[in-house]
Specification:
Rieske Iron-sulfur Protein, Naphthalene 1,2-dioxygenase Alpha Subunit, Chain A, domain 1, 2 domains, 8 helices, globular, binds FE2/S2 (inorganic) cluster, binds fe (ii) ion
C-alpha cells in the first residue's frame, strides 16, 4: 500500500453533514462535509484516549469526540477540552492528522500522505467523464483480496476468454495479439485486440457479436495508485468501466466503479447494465480471491511472465519505483509491532508544513518499507 497519493474514497453524493467512518490503507478515517460544502478527512483517532471521532457529532465545521468532548477543527487542531478549568489552554499536541481533499469525477479524493502541494502526484485525467452523451452508473464491489491482485486482474487481457468466455474473448482463440504499452511516470496504457466471442452463446451480447464478428478493440489504462479503466469497443458502442480499487486493508478491497456507455442509454436499461458489471466482477472474484501469495510480490522475477502480461509488468515496475522511494506502508510491521500498544497514522502535510509543530505529534507515523539503496536506483533496477 502506498502513501503520498490521492485516493478516491467515496462517492460525493454519499458524504454529507454527518461524520462517516471509512477504512483506507488499513487506517480508520472520518469524512464529513463543512458548511461551505468542502469535505473534511481526518484520522478517526482522538489523541486523548483513542476515541473514534466518527462516533461523535459536528459543532459547526468542527467534530466533537464522543468520549470526553474534545473538539477538533477541520485542520485537525483541538480547540476545546471541556474538562479543563476556564483559562487553561489547549496543548499544541492536541491535534489529529487532517488530509487534503478534492472532489472530481463524482468522488471525494483524499491525499493520504505528507507531501507539500507542489510535490503531490496528480489525479488521473479521465476525459470520458466529460464526454457528452455517455450514460453513467456507479456502485461498489467488495473483494476478499489485496488490491494489487484486483488491479492486475483489471488489466489482464489473457484471462478474458477463460474467466469471461461468453462476453469478452473467445476460448477457442485465446491468443493475445502483441501490443505496445505506453508508460508514463504514474500511468500506463495499451490498446489490445481480442478475438470476438464465439457466436453460440445466449443473451444479448452474443446476438450482437453474431451479427458482426469483428475483433474486439479494448483500451486498458492504469493510473497509480489504484485506478484502472477498461474500454471495450462493442459492435453497438463503447462500454467503459472505470474502477477505483480502494485498499481497505491487506485482505479487503472495495472497488468504486463507474460504468459509462453510449448505447442503450435509457434509464430503464440501467439495471441490465448494472447486472453485467456485477457478473464480470463475480466471474473475476472466483480466481482473484484464491491467488497466492495474496499480495503482489515485490520481486518481478517471483512469478513467471509471458508477452501478453506486458501491462501487468509495467504496473509492477511503476509501483516499485514508489516502494523504492520509501512510500510503501509496512503493514506487516504495523500488525506485528504496533497494533496492540501504539496506534499509528498516515502522516498529513501539517507535519511537514508547519515547522513549529514538528515535535507536536502524539500519534506515530505508519512505518514504511525502507527506501532502496541509492546504488540500486542508479543502476536502473527500479526503472521500467
Ligand atoms: S478520547 Fe476523545 S476526548 Fe477523550
Ligand atoms: Fe476479468
Amino acid at each position: 500500500m502506498l502513501k503520498n497519493f490521492w485516493y478516491a474514497c467515496e462517492f460525493s453524493e454519499r458524504v454529507g453533514h454527518e461524520p462517516q467512518r471509512i477504512t483506507v490503507l488499513g487506517q480508520r478515517l472520518v469524512l464529513y462535509r463543512r458548511g461551505d460544502g468542502g469535505v473534511v478527512c481526518m484520522s478517526d483517532l482522538c489523541v486523548h484516549r483513542g476515541g473514534a471521532l466518527s462516533d461523535g457529532h459536528l459543532e459547526g465545521d468542527c467534530i466533537v469526540c464522543p468520549y470526553h468532548g474534545w473538539r477538533y477543527r477541520p485542520d485537525g487542531a483541538c480547540d476545546r477540552i471541556p474538562a479543563n478549568q476556564p483559562g487553561v489552554g489547549v496543548p499544541r499536541k492536541a491535534r489529529v492528522d487532517a488530509y487534503p481533499t478534492r472532489e472530481q469525477y463524482g468522488l471525494v479524493w483524499a491525499f493520504l500522505g505528507d507531501l507539500p502541494e507542489a510535490e503531490r502526484p496528480p489525479l488521473p485525467v479521465l476525459s470520458d467523464f466529460a464526454t457528452p452523451g455517455l450514460r453513467a452508473l456507479h456502485g461498489d464491489y467488495r473483494w476478499h483480496a489485496h488490491y494489487t491482485r484486483v488491479i492486475e486482474n483489471g488489466m489482464d487481457a489473457a484471462h478474458a476468454p477463460f474467466v469471461h468466455g461468453g462476453a469478452f474473448g473467445n476460448p477457442e482463440e485465446p491468443e493475445v495479439a502483441d501490443y505496445e504499452v505506453e508508460i508514463g511516470e504514474w500511468s500506463s496504457r495499451a490498446a489490445i485486440t481480442l478475438k470476438p466471442p464465439a457466436a453460440r452463446g445466449k443473451g444479448l451480447w452474443s446476438r450482437l457479436y453474431r451479427r458482426e464478428p469483428k475483433p474486439v478493440r479494448t483500451f486498458v489504462g492504469f493510473h497509480l495508485p489504484n485506478v484502472v479503466s477498461l474500454e471495450v469497443g462493442l459492435p453497438i458502442g463503447r462500454f467503459i468501466l472505470i474502477n477505483f480499487h480502494l485498499p481497505v486493508d491487506d485482505e479487503t478491497t472495495i472497488t468504486k466503479w463507474v460504468l459509462l456507455r453510449d448505447f442503450f442509454t435509457q434509464p430503464w436499461m440501467d439495471s441490465g447494465a448494472r447486472k453485467r458489471v456485477f457478473k464480470i466482477f463475480d466471474q473475476d472474484r472466483v480466481v482473484v480471491e484464491e491467488q497466492r501469495p495474496e499480495l503482489l510480490p515485490y520481486d518481478i522475477g517471483a512469478e513467471l511472465h509471458v508477452k501478453s502480461d506486458a501491462m501487468q509488468i509495467a504496473y509492477r515496475k511503476i509501483r516499485r519505483r514508489f516502494l523504492d522511494r520509501g512510500w510503501g506502508i509496512d503493514t506487516h510491521r504495523i500488525q506485528a509491532e504496533n497494533a496492540r500498544y501504539q496506534a499509528v497514522v498516515i502522516p498529513s502535510p501539517a507535519r511537514r508544513e508547519i515547522p513549529e509543530l514538528a515535535h507536536a505529534w502524539v500519534m506515530k507515523e505508519v512505518p514504511v518499507r525502507q527506501p532502496a539503496p541509492e546504488r540500486e536506483l542508479e543502476l536502473g533496477r527500479s526503472q521500467p
